[in-house]
Amino acid sequence: MFCCVLFCVVLGVFSEPSVELGLNGKWRLSNSNGSVSVPAPVPGCVHTALMQQQYIQDPYFRFNDLSYRWIAHDNWTYMTSFNVSAQLRVKQKVLLVFDGVDTVATILFNGFMVGRTDNMFRRYDFSVSHLLRDGENVLKVVLVSPVLYAFKQSKAHSSYSVPPECPPDVQKGECHVNFIRKEQSSFSWDWGPSFPTLGLWKGIRLEAFDILQLIQFSSFPLYNHSSGQWRLQVELIIDADQTTSGQVELSLPELGSQETFQTRFTKGRTKYNFTLLINKSREVKLWWPNGHGSQPFYRLTIRGFQDQVLLLHTGSKVFFRTVELIQEQIGSSLGLSFYFRINGKPVFLKGSNWIPADAFQDRVDPSVLRNLLQSAVDANMNALRVWGGGVYEQDLFYDICDEMGLMVWQDFMFACAMYPTEDDFILTVREEVSQQVRRLKSHPSIIVWSGNNENEAALATNWFDIPASKRLSYVKDYVKLYVNNVREIVLEEDPSRPFLVSSPTNGAESEQEGWVAANPYDPLYGDVHFYSYTSDCWDWKTFPRTRFASEYGFQSWPSFSTLEPVSVEEDWSYDSKFSSHRQHHESGNQQMLQQAALHFQLPNSSHPLKRFTDTLYITQVMQAQCVKTQTEFYRRSQSEIIEGKGHTMGALYWQLNDIWQAPSWSSIEFGGKWKMLHYFAQNFFSSVLPVGFEDEDSLFVYAISDLSQDLQIRAVVKLYSWFGLGSLCTLTSDLTLIPGGVAAPIFKRPMSELLAGCGVCTRLTCLVSFHLEDDHGVQQGPTNEHFLCSPKDAQGLRRPNITAKVQEDESGFAVTLLSDAVAPFVWLDVGRVPGRFSSNGFLMVSGNRTVRFDAWRPSSVTELSRSLTITTLTDVY
Ligand SMILES: *[C@@H]1O[C@H](CO)[C@@H](O)[C@H](O)[C@H]1NC(C)=O
Ligand SMILES: *[C@@H]1O[C@H](CO)[C@@H](O)[C@H](O)[C@H]1NC(C)=O
Ligand SMILES: *[C@@H]1O[C@H](CO)[C@@H](O)[C@H](O)[C@H]1NC(C)=O
Ligand SMILES: *[C@@H]1O[C@H](CO)[C@@H](O)[C@H](O)[C@H]1NC(C)=O
Ligand SMILES: *[C@@H]1O[C@H](CO)[C@@H](O)[C@H](O)[C@H]1NC(C)=O
Ligand SMILES: *[C@@H]1O[C@H](CO)[C@@H](O)[C@H](O)[C@H]1NC(C)=O
Ligand SMILES: *[C@@H]1O[C@H](CO)[C@@H](O)[C@H](O)[C@H]1NC(C)=O
Ligand SMILES: *[C@@H]1O[C@H](CO)[C@@H](O)[C@H](O)[C@H]1NC(C)=O
Ligand SMILES: *[C@@H]1O[C@H](CO)[C@@H](O)[C@H](O)[C@H]1NC(C)=O
Fold it and tell me: Mind listing the UniProt keywords for this protein, alphabetically (predicted)?
């Protein structure tokens, strides 16, 4: 791009349209009294800079979240100096661009204040042409303590309180996070530490130009149902130094579309919008969610000219798809449906909720993102909800979701709180929302915007004890922020996907009720978040038969290999100070054991470390089995309406990933290791799935299919005894037609008949395993099982002798297990060797099983054999 500058200038044709100077790299960082002064990378934050300089230890180590509280209570200054080329300096306009400042800062350029920032989620730019000088230029960013700022803002808001003041004590966090436009979970959450970061978390540069500069651009296709024609909506935000006329050329060569628009560029910052019609006789390849088709794209090129001189040149991928959120009457039942139709096809959303992958965003590199998102796809997920207490994710996150077919439910970043609505706050939020929507709306993966997390519910069910007399003013603030501002901007900016005000919400019904429904958890409308730790999770009758389950879950502990690097020996017991310090959910550690004790013997080894690791294991068994039961209930409720409830079309459990090494609802540990739940998700989200459950004293098996085509299928049900290997008897159903996108009963047998028919079986001595088979006898989907009693009551269950052999072949490692007895929840663990098994946590009812291990770095048979441990339910007591 810069190669012909001299040549062009000499010819007088044109000079470079724009020149850029990157300012990322090593800066200098110091605290307010100068006692700390260290080099610091940009992008980055204070905590990671101090860690890199070994000024502090790993902030995740033991109790360091408490030891390092002082960092966020201090003010910090980032400083750099640089020389500017003559070529840049002669430009008419020079912008100093910050893609992200965390959060409250004053910016000084050569000693002059050029601006302030107060919102982590905004891009900022400042005109600095008049401040540039020969030789050295100095740029300083003075960051104020976010904790102090939030406190001062809350005090300045004198008229009434905006709850909650502080997080619960168990979270060991900071107060008034709702007063600062910053990652809300950075002041602590019920799964995360308090590390209120400060820093320059995204890139910084100078952009210099003479005539015009492209600031932001987006494109999204719209489909006209009545004409059957696609059109591509392209928007450019351009900063022009003077008013001129020119042309904008859009081209989608693979679809034979190209058009040139005469344009008048007006001085200042302006949005331009163009429509490119796609020839109706062209076949447009559609983007589909994972499991429903592929994710093809087309290349769009955009060029801007003035008198044949190229002024801007950019391009992007374009994906074609439509999305509709259907809320309509279902037959004669009460309530409204709530499901997504992609390209006209109803799609059941299977997945989980995404939280920030690290407390320090600069550590979330491409490999971390790829690994987590690939793990989601490998567990047969097609959707993730980017939860509203974190951050709008980086571009790469959405690029990968586009590429993998992961649908994104995108929250705006407001969570579990009331928010202020004075003018300054609304103004910065408006800018945040329009920037984020413009940045993200080109991504087909995003299928819905949602205004906030749980704030409708917080108001409706009065989490913060707001007196009845004051309620109305909070409702007014709620409507002002999410309806009159966030929603208004989204509707104007993005007609290509639906908007919801909150999650959970009753959707259209909430709107009818003035945006805050009496009961936002109503199973007849919208989405539901549901948690119950005390009721028995094996009993599906305790779950709400909702239209859409966007949050539900159970906690577990991560494995020992994940905890070990951030702890010491005295921490390695379930009732250590460390174990309760890391638990940020009130009574969480007790709840896990109480739930586990309903069905399992609790670990009681006299060896302290074994007892600890066994306890970690049993919490994972409990979590996996609970979330499995609940998810299977939602999937099998897809095609039924019972007492008005049902037609469930989404199951997004809480939560996919972890922010640090601690107990939480996640299915993937910090560092990427799969918990037992994630292995279970692979099965319970598979496209074809048999689900077994008891109702009215009968055993039912449902067949569920997410395929596009019909299946002719039968259920094969086998009974096994806890006493010995091998099936006792086999029952099969008739072949049944299961259309794509349907869940239907395929097998039903009274329990008494089932047990008596198998001779020696009783509830306490037998268990059921089942799978689906097509008319050629080929198994479709995974094998599943149904326990007839709690394993703690099972008669005949004994400690098996399991031996394992690791082998290597062309395609990697295989582990072959031999067992001499029935073994439930067989768990293979290779400690700190990163990677994952093809299957884990499984039931062994035959004497052998081979699973593969996919190592994420080079390993060997020796290393794996040495690291491998095998645990089954009977090993813990
Ligand atoms: C300077 O600030 C640090 C960090 O806040 C503090 O620990 C130290 O005591 C201060 N030093 C002086 C001389 O005030
Ligand atoms: C940080 O800056 C704020 C605002 O300028 C000031 O009130 C506060 O005293 C400063 N804190 C420290 C530790 O210097
Ligand atoms: C920047 O300019 C100053 C003053 O002209 C000069 O001394 C210095 O060497 C320059 N630095 C670089 C990196 O060019
Ligand atoms: C959609 O197509 C119909 C029929 O051709 C046309 O009347 C209408 O203007 C089109 N709508 C848009 C938004 O282009
Ligand atoms: C649309 O495509 C068809 C077939 O490729 C072609 O014959 C026709 O001229 C195109 N129409 C336009 C308006 O480009
Ligand atoms: C783009 O321009 C068209 C035609 O001028 C207008 O109807 C539409 O509302 C604009 N869209 C946006 C998102 O500004
Ligand atoms: C366990 O099984 C292996 C191989 O099947 C055998 O060699 C070993 O002796 C058995 N161990 C016990 C304790 O029975
Ligand atoms: C594994 O079990 C199957 C039957 O379940 C048997 O056919 C096979 O021989 C066994 N393999 C080994 C290595 O024992
Ligand atoms: C642990 O519990 C089991 C089952 O109740 C019992 O048989 C065993 O003796 C106990 N072990 C210890 C070390 O207390």
Answer: Disulfide bond, Glycoprotein, Glycosidase, Hydrolase, Lysosome, Signal
